[in-house]
């Protein structure tokens, strides 16, 4: 059988950047708590976690690019909440953020976790920030850890 490469869910020894938007902070701070909890319980050192706060999700791709290019991180987790309002603003912000993050992901240089909620309602965001649909911040953090450990083997 050919070899199988897969990433452990161990954050031991990983340097992790967490980019968190202040917009909708009542949601994004819950995503951050979930991500930090998952990382620490997976073996990350408290001192190996760096948090960068940005005004809104729109600002996230630029900071992600800077952190990725710095070479100082094994994994970067993006945490934000874009919630639909009564105007087309949601679509512009959500599309650009996801495209911007994807452009860093596809370079394949650093593991990236995409913990940006894009929801129609505040209730849907609450459900995904530590209530009935889990915590998408924790999920994004663990995806980044898994991929960081895959990248180490490629
Ligand atoms: N930023 C968000 O993170 N979530 C949103 O839901 C949102 N909406 O809907 O407006 C939002 N807008 C702000 C945007 O990200 C920028 O911070 C702002 O345009 C300044 O550049």
CATH architecture descriptor text: 3-Layer(aba) Sandwich
Report the CATH superfamily: Lumazine/riboflavin synthase
Taking pLDDT < 50 over at least 5 consecutive residues as the criterion, the unreliable ranges are none
Radius of gyration: 15 Å
**How helical, in percent, are the residues?**
40-55%
CATH class, named Alpha Beta
Strand content range:
15-25%
Structural class: alpha/beta
Give the total of domains. Answer: 1
CATH topology: Rossmann fold
Morphology: globular
Word description of this protein:
This protein has 154 residues and is α/β, with parallel strands linked by helices. The protein has a single domain, classed as Rossmann fold (3-Layer(aba) Sandwich). It has 5 helices and 6 strands. The chain has helices at 25-41, 60-70, 89-105, 122-127, 136-151; strands at 16-21, 49-54, 75-83, 111-119, 129-131, 134-135. The strands form 2 sheets. It has a 4-stranded parallel sheet with strand order 2-1-3-4, sandwiched between helices. Helix 3 (89-105) links the parallel strand 3 (75-83) and strand 4 (111-119). Helix 1 crosses helix 5 and helix 2 packs parallel to helix 3 (89-105). The structure holds 5-nitro-6-ribityl-amino-2,4(1H,3H)-pyrimidinedione. The site of 5-nitro-6-ribityl-amino-2,4(1H,3H)-pyrimidinedione has 16 residues, from strand 3 and helix 3.
Give a quick summary of the entry.
It contains five helices and six strands; from the N terminus they run E-H-E-H-E-H-E-H-E-E-H. The protein has 154 residues and is α/β, with parallel strands linked by helices. 5-nitro-6-ribityl-amino-2,4(1H,3H)-pyrimidinedione binds at residues 21, 23-24, 55-59, 80-83, 85, 89-90, 93.
């Amino acid at each position: 059988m050919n070899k199988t490469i897969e990433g452990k869910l161990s954050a031991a020894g990983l340097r992790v950047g967490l980019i968190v938007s202040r917009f909708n902070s009542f949601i994004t701070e819950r995503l951050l708590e979930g991500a930090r909890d998952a990382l620490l319980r997976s073996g990350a050192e408290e001192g190996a976690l760096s948090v960068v706060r940005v005004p809104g999700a729109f600002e996230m791709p630029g900071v992600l690019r800077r952190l990725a290019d710095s070479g100082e991180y094994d994994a970067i987790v993006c945490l934000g909440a874009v919630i639909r309002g009564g105007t087309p603003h949601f679509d512009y912000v959500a599309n650009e953020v996801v495209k911007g993050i994807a452009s860093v992901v596809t370079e394949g240089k650093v593991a990236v976790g995409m913990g940006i909620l894009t929801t129609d309602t505040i209730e849907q965001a609450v459900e995904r920030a530590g209530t009935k649909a889990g915590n998408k911040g924790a999920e994004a953090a663990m995806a980044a850890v898994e991929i960081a450990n895959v990248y180490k083997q490629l």
